[in-house]
Write a structure and sequence with these properties.
The structure holds two protein chains of two kinds. By secondary structure, chain A is an alpha+beta fold.
Amino acid sequence: MRCHFNFFTGDSVLIDDVGVEVPNIQYARTEALQAIQEVSQDMQDFGFDWSAWTLSVTDSDGQVLLTVPLERVIGETTLLH
Amino acid sequence: MHPDRNREMAAQDRIVRQHVRQQILRMAAAGAAELVARHVGRLSIPSRLRGSEGAPQERGAGDARALFDPQCLDMLDALSLAAYATDAAGWITFYNEAAAALWGRRPILGRERWCGSWRIYRTDGTLLPHDHCPMAIALLENRAIRDMDAVVERPDGSRIRFMPYPTPLRDASDALMGAVNILVDLGPLRGRNIPDS
């Protein structure tokens, strides 16, 4: 299945119009959260505010498969499993 | 599990994670650029980097990197954010690999002024002379410029929208010593009517 990893806040949307093939939604979730953790660690000393952003994973028809507020992800390693 | 299957799955992990990472970096870039620009703008300039007044400064990249907090450089690299610096007269003293990639060229330090791009356009498609680009305005008016996106044209003709964050650098006595500019790549230009020149 092809998943698109979109991010949005109250006033901005970043559409993933390319997407990437994944075996299933659980796999997409795990890899997305891992990537978010990695980037947040790179930026942890700079006070970047993640709290307003939400990840929305959709399929190629635009159907929402998964929604994750990023503030839940940062520093929450248990979400990865 | 067969070793070939393990390698295949590991490769897929890398592809998916890299894809998501790129999306996150696009999301983070604008906010991060603002943070870095604010952070860099607060730095005072070491006295050894000050040159004689009025003359273009032919500085090596090693010296010019001292303008940046090492953490800033790490973050810029991690986010693939383009950055460059000039002296107070606008002569380019430093740029990173991401800036060279965005410009599609490598300007000569100390010999090119205001911006390392081949050509710059306003978003309405008109040519933006280098001495009127956001970095030039930041230096000439001694103020940070924000919310002025533009289009860079590479020597190969490709055009990329970008958001610049030019920020003056001042010494402890508040004298203008140069400027740093963070360039956020907003992606290839699509559906815009920019004339060839």
